[in-house]
Amino acid sequence: MKREAAEKRGRQAEKTAARFLRLKGWRILDERVRTPRGEVDLVAKRGGLVAFVEVKARTRLEDLEQAIDLNRLRRVADAVEILYPQYCTRGEDARIDVILVAPRRLPVHLTNVWHGF
């Protein structure tokens, strides 16, 4: 039951993050994109920039600091290596962002968090 609650909270956080990005002028190209090497929660585009977005939700604001780590970002970066040609077909720039979601707070958007690709 705990796993189901976490899954539901994660899906809700992804919806919140997508709405947040749309309000900032981004177009959501895809959600929950899986590859053999990792998963990307959201793929968004604004102008000539494609953002591959990892969304993390925590029930307590204090826990957001520990929500993302190097191993998780590496899996996202591995997935982006596979997905880049599919979403950046016209020479768009790409980056990896993180959106942190906690109850009763605006989402926190961390931009360009991975510089390894």
From TrEMBL:
User: Which Gene3D superfamilies does the record cross-reference, listed alphabetically?
Assistant: 3.40.1350.10
Q: Which Pfam families match?
A: UPF0102
Cross-referenced InterPro entries: Restrct_endonuc-II-like, tRNA_endonuc-like_dom_sf, UPF0102_YraN-like
According to its UniProt record, which protein family does this protein belong to? Belongs to the UPF0102 family.
Task: Return the HAMAP family for the record.
Answer: UPF0102
- The protein, known as: UPF0102 protein HUO14_02225
